[in-house]
Design goal:
Elements lengths: L8 H4 L7 H36 L5 H24 L6 H29 L5 H27 L6 E2 L5 E2 L9
Antiparallel strand pairs: 1-2
Length: 175
Amino acid sequence: MTTTAPPGAAVREGITMSGSRGIRGLIRRHAVAFGRFAGLGSGVTLAASAVLVLLSQWIPWPAANALTTVASTAIATELHARVAFGHGRPGLAGHLKSAATIAVGWLVTSGAVGALAALRPGAGLVLQQTVYLSATALVGIGRYLVLRLAVFAERAPRTRAGGDVRLRAVYDATA
């Protein structure tokens, strides 16, 4: 005896011919992760800014800046790996790769502001900040993509010696 599902049952179960529900879920998952990434990064940056102001009262500004940059990068890397990407502890390699994205971002933002100074020597503060913040936004998007797709990418299931598939931590549960 054959049974048939009622009309629309496949859609209620999340199964569609076009797979659009899966695409929407993927987009939603990445949007949530990006929101977490941006929120965490902004929070760490604001806290680091406050610490920088305090530290610069006791030690020279360049030293205070270096200390807060290193500390905030380490803290942000831990938070991004664990909270934004649901990856777990990043380890030394994850921290070094994340630090590399920060270094590249610094070069890009410095280059953008330097190019503005060369092209428009008398540029006002509003234009300087517009260029800097635009470059920072692009760097942030690029940093998210590199960290999400390369540094803290979802791991594929691994096969055990007995042929069983070892399941990875489910990223969907955190999104």
